[in-house]
Structures are given as structure tokens and as C-alpha cells.
Amino acid sequence: MCITSNYLNMNSMGNCFGGYQYGMGIADLFTGVPGLNTVWINNDGNFNKGCSCGGPNWGVVAGFTAANMLSMIGMSWIISDKTKKAQKQAEEKAAAKQYNKDLNNAVTMINPTDGQTVITIDDVKNVRSYNKNELLNKVTSARYDDAKLNEATQKVTDLEGEKTAHKNSLDAAKTTLENARNAMALDATNTEKQTAYKNAQKAVAAIEEALKTKKAELEAAQKEVKKYEEEQKAFDTAKQTVREAINNYADINDAKDAETLDDADGNRLNRTERESNKKYQYDESDGITLKNESNIEDMTASDWRGLINDYRTISDPTTKQAIAKFVKDNWGKIAKEYTKGDLGQGLSIIKNNV
User: What is the per-residue pLDDT across 1-11, written as a single tens digit (0 to 9) for each?
Assistant: First the structure.
């Protein structure tokens, strides 16, 4: 006979002597993690795992509970780690999308609305195919069209002058009004003095209105100047954004090039390293030349790998340029099989660095 409830399972066959089986682990009560599930309490009040007939096996009980809990915690850590990675990837993707958007806007901003394009987004991203310094010079030479700014600035200067003139006129008109008031006070019945006083009042009112209008025009012109000044700042910021992008992409490409060159120069077993075996030599005046009446066609894959290794390891920039020039000048004579694969990629990088 089996009587079952949510929290207590009683099975007379569950224990050799009869007993109780609690289906809810202790850990379940507090943590939701399966704990002392299927733990038997025999009639003597002892804990037993399964159908044992001895005393309490506390090691089994503790081990079973710990294993259950660690298993659940481990799973939660894995799930949490995956969630964090997914969130990080989403954030990186969003950041990259925003970066590309900002870069496109920056490139668009520094190009003139009419005339020849200074630089394109492809120039920036494909800096490997261009000269980095040339691109940076293009960005530096880009100029903000300040014609409207200069016009607005001049307008402010003119309006400030007009405003000053109006204020001077107003001061003079107020003086005239004060004199007319005093004169009329001495002879209130004099119609000429009354007319002069009224005309002085009208003159003051008219100048005050003109001054008010001039102030409004001046404020509007000052706002125009501020707007164009903000545009100029944004233009300068855009140039800086493009400069940084060029440098960033150049660094990325340099790292890729370094990795490619590292593969292209092979190893000690398949490249020429001994000076006596090299078919080329370095000369202070001529740069790099062939020796022993060798021809470019005589250069083997081992020789070219040796040359790439020299390019990688030599720190002198003049010698590096000499190697690059040598490769570029003789590119058409290099055997086609050497211009393919990792060897060809390495030689191509050197050629393009002239």
C-alpha cells in the first residue's frame, strides 16, 4: 500500500524494517536546489540511503547533497557565463555598428559639398592599399568652408556698430527731450515749445524702437555665428575621428602584415640565411643588388624567403626601403609561383610599402 502527499512519501516496502521516505530534500526547503532526496528514516530514527539496514550513513547523505548542490550551482554558472558572453557580443556588435556610423558621418562631413572628394570611407578602411601618411595629409588639408561664418561675423560687427550709433542717437534725443520739457515748463502756453516737446518724445520713441529692432537683429546674427562656430568644431572633431580611424586600421593592418610576413619567411630549413649563399647583397649607394652575376630568375623560393626574413629583422628603415624597392622594381620578373600563396603575400606586402 502506498500513500503519497506533496511532501511525504510513505512506502512500507521502502525499508527493510519498514519506514518513511521523505521525497523533499532539506536543501529544497531553503534554496530550491535538490538536496536530501530519497533519504530514508527507519523505525529506529536512523538515516539510510536507499534500502540499507544499518546505522546512519552520514557521509553518503552529505556527499549526495553536496553533489546535487554543486551540480546545480555549476549549471547556473555555465548559464550565467553564456548569458554574459552573449551580452558582451551584443554590446560589441552594437559598438562596432555605431563606430562605423560615426566614421561614415565624419568622412561625409570633411568632404566638400561641391568639388573633389577629399577622402572616402574605403580609403580609410583599405589604408593597406594606400599610403597612410598621404591619407593623413588629405585629412589635415581638409578645410571647413567658413564663408558663412565670416559673413555672419561681419554682420555682427556691423550691427554692433549700428546699435552703438542708435544708443548715441537715443542719448542725444533724450537730452533734446529733457530740454524741451524744461522749456515748456517755463512757458506752458507756448505752442511752439509744446510742439518741440511732442516731437522730441516721438523722436525718442522712434529711436528706442529702432534700437530694439537692432538688438533683435544682433542677437539673431550672434546665434548664426555660434551655429557656424559649432559646425567648425564638429568639422575639426570629424577630422580627428578620421585620423584616429586611419591610425587604428593601419595598426590592424600592420599586425596582419607582421603575421603574414612571419609565415612567409618560412624557417631555417627552407630559407637562405647564410651570407655566402645569398644571391643578393646590400650596398650603401645602390641599396640592394644581385651578386655573382645572378639574375632575378635565379632567385629561388628559399632566396625570397631569406629576403623576407631580412626585411622582418632589419631595423634600419633605409635598408627596409631598399628591399621594398628591389621587390617592386623586379616584381614582373619574379617567377609566378613565388607570387602566390604565403610567399607571394609576403612579397606583395613588402612591395606595397615603398
Answer: 443 443 333 34
